[in-house]
Amino acid sequence: MNYRRILYIAFIVFIAFFFFRNLGNNNTIDKQIQSIPRASVMDLILDDPELNKDTKTIYFPLDYKGTAGEVFYVSTENDDGPITYKYRIEEIEAAAVNELEFELDQTWEGIKIPADKFDAFCLEDGQWVEM
Question: What Å distances lie between residue 92 and 30, 34, 126, CA to CA?
Answer without folding.
Answer: 13, 12, 30
